[in-house]
Amino acid sequence: EAARAVIARYFTEGHEDLESGHLLHNAASRAVLCKLGFVDTVIQKRPSASLGKSVDVQRMTLSRAAWEQSL
User: Fold this and answer.
1) Which among 67, 36, 66, 42 is positioned nearest to 56, based on CA atoms?
2) For all residues of the chain together, what is the average pLDDT?
3) Helix H segments across the chain?
4) CA–CA distance from 48 to each of 12, 27, 61 (Å)?
């Protein structure tokens, strides 16, 4: 899967935590991130150019340790 290859490259380059997020109502994006091992951190208001307003975004993180354990 392409996402797994990108994540592997990210951690191979020496980075620690990988940050991501999804709109609260976007269950499909959440499912993908959870499947990859991301966990919830905080909910933030973020500007959305396409919606023309601020929206709630669930921020998530994937640690190097969690990634390595999933291999």
Assistant:
1) 42
2) 95
3) 2-12, 27-36, 64-70
4) 32, 18, 21
